[in-house]
Amino acid sequence: MKSAEGKEEVKGLRVLPSVDLLMKTDPAGEYAREFGRERAADVVRAVVASLRAEVAGGTLDAAGRDSLTGQAEARIRAALESEKQSGLRKVVNATGVIIHTNLGRAPLSDAALEAVRTAAGYCDLEYDLGTGRRGRRGSRAEELAAELTGAEEAIIVNNCAAAAVLVLSSLCDGGEAVISRGELVEIGGDFRVPDVMERSGAKLVEVGTTNRTRIEDYSRAISDETRLLLRVHPSNYRIVGFTSMPTVKELADLAHSSGLLLYEDAGSGALMDLSGLGLTDEPLIPESIAAGADVVTFSGDKLLGSVQSGFIVGKAEVLEKIRRHPLYRALRPSKIIYAALEATLVSFMRGTMFDDVPALKMLALTEEELGKRAAEMAEELRERLGGVEAASVELVDGRSVVGGGSAPDSQPPGKLIAVRHRSEGANLLEERLRNFEPPVIARIEDDSVLIDLRTVDVSELEIVKSAVCEAFR
Ligand SMILES: *Cc1c(COP(=O)(O)O)cnc(C)c1O
User: Fold this and answer.
1) What region does 461 belong to: left with phi over 0, alpha with psi -120 to 50, or beta?
2) Across the chain, what does the average pLDDT equal?
3) I need a surface site. Which of 133, 251, 407, 449 has the fewest CB within 10 A?
């Protein structure tokens, strides 16, 4: 280090603030209080290392220790803010996709939230308060599920995929399950029904063609190795036109006359008829049970509108076998899940689900009401953005999406708000909404950002307005 440059470098490095000194600054102190001293010291060391590298590399001017300390403090503060925000964050869902898997699927009802709070402390999870002895875990939620579906029994596990694995592991025992080719589908980016199901050791025997499968196709495939007939709802995949599938009743009759079981994976499924809301293709769980299905599985956080969970409902004798399977212990949910489900299922029992359960409330929101909310917001946005040349706010006709693999054909219509920046692209606007606090997530169509208020709670309308105005600053 004899060159003039080398001396400069050494000089710059000598004025680098020390870790000890920086640990005494306000941001480092706050870091230590929030996340512990060790984590704070790690961050401070990383900041000093980055300063040293930049000074040595000549990309940062070492104008003295004070300025470098200021730089270091700013970086520690930035790291602190970013770490504070790195957990699960609230977002406003302005996409109009009701069951949005990336945004946490169904939002919980107030009653479910309250129940979760209660169960978070000690609770009678596996304790019978009448006798003072051990009780059955999850019994209340399971009783409600059985009652609502008309099944003899219900079992709750962590999600519907877990339910499918548990059912096939318990009932198929390495034997064969006969399934239509039209039902071997991939749902979402990374979930293939057959891949998950085969993990249970079951051999899936495909019958029929993609668009048509007859009851004879199933009966011809039955062998000594067959344990059950399997029906899987194709969820977000639709075969239209020249199609046919046997009914649940036909499949149940064939299964029973052959000494087999019928298992239906309904995916989302619905507890009651939603055809009035345009959902005509969702399997009705009570209908499948009444038609003779021995076991039906469905999700807790799709059209049921509760927490991530999977329901197994059906005949008592069959479910007893499932509950005794060793995998059940690995797949059973926590008390928090039972609590949220109990409260949600009670809304269904009472018949108040369209008022209480957010996903169903959003689904049932009338075109008129949605139009009114959109028009009010558009008008206020135009007022607030009055002086902003670049801003354009329009009402457009659009459609919301049920999502979560449910009802791909039924997209509830309604007015949406199209926001456009006359000189910048829609991507910039979308990004600014996404970077708002709390983030507002919207979709882009035809170079506009589309805001769909169907999935925005009335308590969040003000956030959306502020985010849009802020995006034009
Ligand atoms: C969504 C879906 C599943 C998976 O449900 P999760 O609760 O997300 O595990 C399984 N089967 C079908 C038919 C589905 O639509």
Assistant:
1) alpha
2) 92
3) 133
What is the Cα–Cα distance from 95 to 401, expressed in whole angstroms?
Answer: 9
Q: How far is CA 426 from CA 57, 136, 188, 422, 450, in A?
A: 39, 54, 26, 9, 10
Tokens, residue 84: 């504070």
Supply the residue whose CA is at minimum distance from atom 15 of ligand 1.
Answer: 267
User: Is the pLDDT reported for residue 155 higher than 50?
Assistant: yes
Q: Which DSSP helix (H) or strand (E) runs through 207? A: strand 203-207
Radius of gyration of the chain (CA): 29
Distance 356 CA to ligand 1 centre (A): 24
Provide the CB-side half-sphere exposure for 122 (13 A, CA).
2
Taken as a whole, the chain contains a residue count of 473
Say which amino acid occupies 402: V
The residue whose CA is least distant from atom 13 of ligand 1 is 267
Considering only CA atoms, which of 228, 227, 236 is closest in space to residue 252?
228
Residue 100 identity: H
Cα first-last separation, the chain: 50
Substitution site in 187, 200, 302, 304 for ligand 1 pocket (most atoms within 8 Å of beta carbon): 187
What single-letter DSSP state applies at residue 212? Answer: B
> In the predicted model, is pLDDT for residue 44 greater than 70?
yes
Q: Which of 427, 415, 409 is nearest to 471 (CA)?
A: 427
Q: List the 443-445 sheet strands across, edge first.
A: 391-399, 413-421, 448-451, 443-445
pLDDT band, very low/low/confident/very high, at 4 (cuts 50, 70, 90) = very low
Distance CA 51, CA 62 (A): 9
Distance, CA of 220 to CA of 178 (rounded, Å):
10
